[in-house]
Amino acid sequence: MQTNSTDSQTEQRTTTVMHLLEVAAIVFSLDQLTKSLVVKNIPMGASWTPIPGLERLVSITHTFNTGAAFGLFRNGGNIFMGIAFLIATAIVYYVIKSPTIPWIMRISLGLQLGGAIGNAWDRMHHGAGTGL
Description:
This protein has about 130 residues and is mainly alpha-helical.
């Protein structure tokens, strides 16, 4: 009887990890696509307002961020790349070790994982996060 329980837990963990990786892959892909569109279509330092009249609320500005969120701790690229890898590793480890994770938490962790991988990718390939 214990084998069935163990097999069920293994299957459940595998499914959870796959869901996490699927969400992370989608987030990473969309992150890179939108950044690529900004780089190709908006000059450095320029802004684009997708909804005319709401520029105070919604605008996209092409800039590079060498620090953390909102430009804090400028030029901390290597430190933040390391932090992104630690976060990604911690998320994957947590999901593998947890027997059950609610679907909303899988999505939340997948969003965080995809974002952390996207930020690490940008720092490795561009030396900075692409801030929008």
